[in-house]
Amino acid sequence: MDDLEEPIRAFIEESRENLDRVDREIVALEQSPSDLNLVSSIFRTLHTMKASCGFFDYQKLQNLTHVGENLLGMIRDRKKSFTSQVGTLLLRMADRIRKCVDHIDQTRREDDEDDSELVSLIEHEINRKEEPKLLNLLAKKIEAMTGTSTSPIDTSVRINLEVLDRLMDLVGELVLVRNQIVQRVEQHDDPQLLRAAKQLNHLTGKLQENILQTRMQPVQTLWNRMPRLVRDVAQMCTKEVTLKMTGGETEIDRSVMDAIKDPLTHLLRNAVDHGIEAPEKRSQLGKSRSGTIHLHSQYSNGQVVISIRDDGGGIAPQKVLKRAIEKGMISSLDAGRMSKDEIIQLIFLPGFSTAEKVSEVSGRGVGMDVVRSNIESIGGVIEIKSVENEGSEIRLKIPLTLAIVQGLIVGVHDQRMIVPQSSLVEIVHLDELECLERVTQIENGSVLQYRGNLIPMVRIESVLELELDPSESVTELTVLILQFESSLIGLIVPRIFDTEEIVIKGLSSDLTSLKIYSGATILGDGSIALVLDVHQLLSPYVFGGCSRGVVDPTPSDSNRHSAEGAVMLVESAGRRFAIQIREIKRMELVQHNSIQKTTRGEMIPHRGAILPVYRLGQNQDSTGNTAHDQSASLLVVEANAKEQGVLVERVVDICPADRIEYEDTETSMGLVDGIVTEFISIFDWLSVTAPSPNDYSSMEG
Amino acid sequence: MDRRISCCLVYIRNIVLGIDINRVEEVLLDLPITPIPRSPKTVAGLINLRGQILTAISLRRAIFETISLERTDSTTHVVVNTATGLYSLLTDRPGEVVDIEEHRFEPPVSTLPSSLRSRLFGVAQTPFGLVHRLNIDAVLFGEEYRNPLETPAEY
């Protein structure tokens, strides 16, 4: 059988493609049942499959395709008309064949399932008498049409993906050699050599481009399976949906295609199940009974944008908010301060689902968060826009290829490493003064004020467990602001070089299991640079609180400031407090003697205005026993668009939720690093402490 | 008829190690190594073998936990093939390729450090000294990894 291996593999691949096409065409046929071109096309495909099955002696497949072909033959010859019943039967047949082909793929043998029921069903359908309804004239005309089949001339060749990968590798190496030669040649004074080198340069670039091109496939191959999916889901939830697909000719790399297949399937399912309303509801709302989903893809800025737009019910912010609060994902305090867009983003939180009830199709609460992490893992971005009662649009921005990425080269010690451009938001350089103004040191790291947010910063050396780079300046900082799902983190690096297009190569398995490198690349001078997997590398350093992205698996609704991401540990009046990071807008160092007493309490001049100051953990009447020339940390919080200051003696640390050893939600006391800590909400505390108390809880509605 | 095993000899200090020649792809001197932060301590780093990126494993660290880790000037890369691709084994210096009759290999003496003993097929007394025949799969993938076909049938 060994000499049959190659043809069998080809048979399997071909069958799968054929089945996808059959699926698509059957669904199309349901829309326009009299389109005889479609009927003949399916007929031809089944016929081809039957012949191949016969060649490999796959009896069952041959039987199935045979009855299917007969059924279609009847339709083609106008002896039967195409009904949805026929469509369902044919789709069932296609599914059955697909399963059997999968089995053949694994074992090279057909499976043992019994097809007799399906076969007899189809045969029954064939024998069912039907009055000839169509005019003979029409039948004749159609016959003439089918005679001139429009099979395209075959200009393509099947190539094993491994061969393409090897070609890619070879070209990658060629590029490196070219770089070296071009560099050397420039030092010589030989115009002919120079010209040859330039030519080499040009040709290598062209070659690389072309080989990349061979790995590209039109998105259409992915589109093909979508009509079937939408049809099945729509039928399952008794909805009427029309799927429009455009831009199928957009080409993306095979590996990207594989990576977006599942997310896209999920999004389409969601659109049908959650997006499009039931037909009755739609007519009540004055919409057409049948909803429309528009799948579109196009190139944009060197990326591919795939959008899924539906004209369904959209996302109701109130519902999302309610669900998020119920599930303890956000506190009702946060809720009052969130914009509509921010609220919609909540659907990306793990465990979120607004489906009224769990259906077979969706609503199990695993969903958008997985979709998002899948898309981000290939360097893509997912965006959602939604208007209640008008519909939603989800846009996936994905790279054309995974083999080549844009990367920023950073230097640590004498080594260079790559940070993928896709996660980089901005590079910030802080001089000495800006460091003083915008960076606050805490014991185990530092925090940066960045566009109104407090974001954690971490040195690349400490992430990689290296010694501090001796050449790195301590007073000036170069910070890479990196996007981390919905939050930001600053990575302090000693040096940055260029951005470059790099070809990522895989690492051996003992290194991929480290999970902090996504690969390595060879730079122009032949040296190796590791490609950092920013997500894996930095996830321990992200504040849960800032992002509203990290949710404790066991949310407690009895106490809203427990179990929600990172807290800031502070000391004041000899007591240790834990404050939710997200409650704090800014943090500053102030001198005690700059605080002034007034009849309305203590105030501090702040950014050209006056900020009321409250001392955490102290009786507000006494100024405390701190010496006046000492400094303290001022936490600036904002509620009801009004800033207030909370004075603490010392900020100890930022502490991720998983470092909290114990927390008693009744008393709001807990243990962090073995120290008894009071967990407080600054807003609640202020609403009690501030002399003219704003009723903060009234914001919750 | 006794099978002869062709071994590529390499040295760690004055210890002679034998690597089956059919597993050796090439022997290279002096290649720059890119260290990998946070990698296991046996991993010396990455090397660029004509555009291919290979993991270099330090034999010193992998099998002589007690020997200090200083590098020598003649550090030699022995590139070996495995089921999962090429690896480079870092040794102090290269030796010759010799044929040794299979029957001369004996179980390693119990005085050897266990980290070494568990990674050997056997040892043989030869004119080049006591040759320790390495089980490179055990070196690279752990002690529990033993290819039964390659283990000498009887000691």
What does this structure look like?
The complex is a heterodimer of chains A (701) and B (155). Chain A is of the alpha+beta class and 701 residues long. Helices cover 39% and strands 27% of the residues of chain A. Chain A contains 22 helices and 30 strands. A 6-stranded mixed sheet of chain A has the order 10-14-15-13-12-11. Chain A has a 6-stranded mixed sheet with strand order 27-19-20-30-29-28. In chain A, strand 11 and strand 12 (445-450) form a beta hairpin. In chain A, helix 1 (5-31) crosses helix 10, helix 3 (59-76) packs antiparallel against helix 4 (84-107) and helix 7 (161-185) packs antiparallel against helix 8 (191-214). The radius of gyration of chain A is 32 Å and the shape is globular. The N and C termini of chain A lie far apart (72 Å). In chain A, 36% of the residues are buried. Chain B is mainly β and 155 residues long. Helices cover 10% and strands 46% of the residues of chain B. Chain B has helices at residues 59-63, 114-117, 136-141; strands at residues 4-12, 15-20, 24-29, 43-49, 52-58, 76-82, 85-91, 93-101, 120-126, 129-134. In chain B, the strands form 2 sheets. In chain B, strands 8-1-2-10-9 form a 5-stranded mixed sheet. A 5-stranded mixed sheet of chain B has the order 3-6-7-5-4. In chain B, strand 6 (76-82) and strand 7 (85-91) form a beta hairpin. The A-B interface holds A 169, 172-173, 176, 415, 464-466, 505, 507-511, 514, 516-517, 520, 522, 526-530 and B 32, 34-40, 43, 46-48, 50-55, 84-85, 87, 140.
